[in-house]
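Hi P.,

Sorry for the delay on this. The queue was packed all week, but I finally got your sequence through. Input first:
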Amino acid sequence: MKASMGKEKTARSKKTLIVDIILLVVSICLFVASCFVFVTRVYLTTFHVNGQSMWPTFNEYALDADGNEVGQRGGKSYVGYTVECGLYNKHKGALKRLERFDIVVTHYSTFGDSEMIKRIVGLPGEKIQFISSGENNGDLYVNGKYVEQPIRTDVLRQASYPVEPIQLGNDEYYVCGDNRSNSTDSRSKSVGPVTRSMLVGKVVAIIGTGVIKEDENGERFVKYSKIQKYRKVRFF
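Then the structure:
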């Protein structure tokens, strides 16, 4: 009788342990899911890189609809293109802590509701000037001091730059694409510096690649894909 009761207790103990483990796993999964939903709604938003203005930092190996590399001279990305996808932090706190060379998503009033990805070159209140000719074309000076840029030198030298210095206001940022010869940005008089209200978020990571698709309502979305030369996940 005692042996039988001992076996029953052991069986119950095992069942209880299994139930406890299952409940723990379910609780952890629910907690992680809740955290993910909270973070994505409050902080992070996904995006896909449209165009080659940030080449080669983004979309270095982007493909057109025929599977050919788009390259440095490519323009806007269309349906069927394979592009890089990432995350940007849209929380107001992130936009208050911006530093030089951070990569941001911004609304250009020139282009209506279109969102552009650019790199911050000048911060509020600074005096920005570029060398606009010769072997040092594209070199950056901030408040009279040379500042090295995290841009490939050959790409930097190919572009055109404003001759006169630019004095930024207390709420203005000077932004440029890394692909300087193929980017519409603050160097253009039709765009100029952007204000903080025009900044949507700070880019934090590239997380994968995808093919641009279009649903029956004409809305674009990206379906996960793969580029053989893709450089994997990158944080900024």
